[in-house]
Design a protein that fits this description.
Arc Repressor Mutant, subunit A; 5% strand; elongated; mainly alpha; 55% helix; two-stranded antiparallel ribbon; 3 domains; 21 helices; Fic-like fold
Amino acid sequence: MKSLIHIPPKRSELIHDLNQCLNILDPELRNGLAAYNIPGLTDDAILDHKGRYLHWDDIKNRHQEYDTALAKWSIIKIARKPFFAPAFGYGVSYIATPNLTRIASLVDQRCTTAGLNALIATYRVTDESILDFADEESIASSQLEGAATTRVIAKKMLRDGRKPRTEGEQMIICNRLLMNMAWSHRHEDMSLDLLLDFHREATTGVDDKNYHPGELRTTDDVWVGDDMGNVIHRPPEAAEVMEALRSLLLWANMSHEKETAWKRYMHPMTKAIILHFYIGYIHPFYDGNGRVARALCYWMLFRTGYSAFRYISISKLLKEAPKEYARAYLRTETDDMDLTYFIEYQSRIIERAVNDLVAHVETSAFRLQELRAWMADTGLLTHLSDLQMSIVTSMIYFPEREYTIKSVTEKYGVARSTAQVALESLVNARIMTKAGGSGRTPATYTGRKSPEKLKAGLLNLQHD
């Protein structure tokens, strides 16, 4: 099996003489290797043509000749001058690349409360257009850790409030409690006791014997390995965990954005990602470290005003490529703890997640505006009751959503009989389909996903 990552050369192997590197690379450089901008060694020397931060892994894969790869890697190492802040035991070393700055700007524009409200107002939708995303992270984070439960089943379980039937479903319940905890404690400093509460909330009832909810590990039988079984990283010894966490949490609570903190300024997104990394690196718990690390990332984003992340799932994208997630960790750990690799990877994931939310709002707005225009032309806007129109609008926002009489009653504040009449009228018009409803199983109503079938159903409703 192929190794997950190539280990960078040791410092003793690097070529510290720039002239020696140029001699090895010549005549390629004479023919116009402008990408290295010799002797300036600016951003072009440490980034590829897409602005991505280069690791030895990238250089090694692109050059068959070891000497050539080593010479280019040596130039890159000479060029790098990472920001270093001795804020806690391990320090914080990274480079604010142009891509990191660009993505931080996107987060500033879209992810504050004001930015989220502006997005909703711009596209003339309601906040209901994003509410179904509130549980996405709880589900995806559990699936990333191995919960064998589909998103549809998990959503239905959370919506209906039924008890979990499997360990995977219990993980999702726990993760939902954990994310709610990250939100409710966003105005508080992070303490060791609160961190232990996070872990307890995340793992209780899943596999208590192996997880030890709310307890720090006391053994050293944990490590990170590559696909070949090689040990890449061993976390700090158990005896060091307490002090490492105290230093990390002191740094987490420190202000990095105020005017008086300009010497140690750090964008909140960057700080949240670093916090995520170091919980995984220290590995303070027997299990569940990843879930707690991601929850602390969210806690930091909530704490610094980025409330839109309640509806943005980072884990949903991480679980699509778990090896890349692991690779981001390993690239940092194998290259002198340069956090740029992990920060850049996570930033790109965040960028995609934010853009997914924006795209959903845009698509929902377009579909709703098109339907409303058609309904106005056909006279249907005045024919539907407010409750019927609210349900149809909800169907536009989330075509996969399922409804029950109870959910409609609670969501719209109407009587149970009113909710039932509205849902049944939409079923009779073939706007919705109905399943279940016998015995103790509540009836489930689902909207037509096809725009043509939805319009045909609305015309049926007009003629009733």
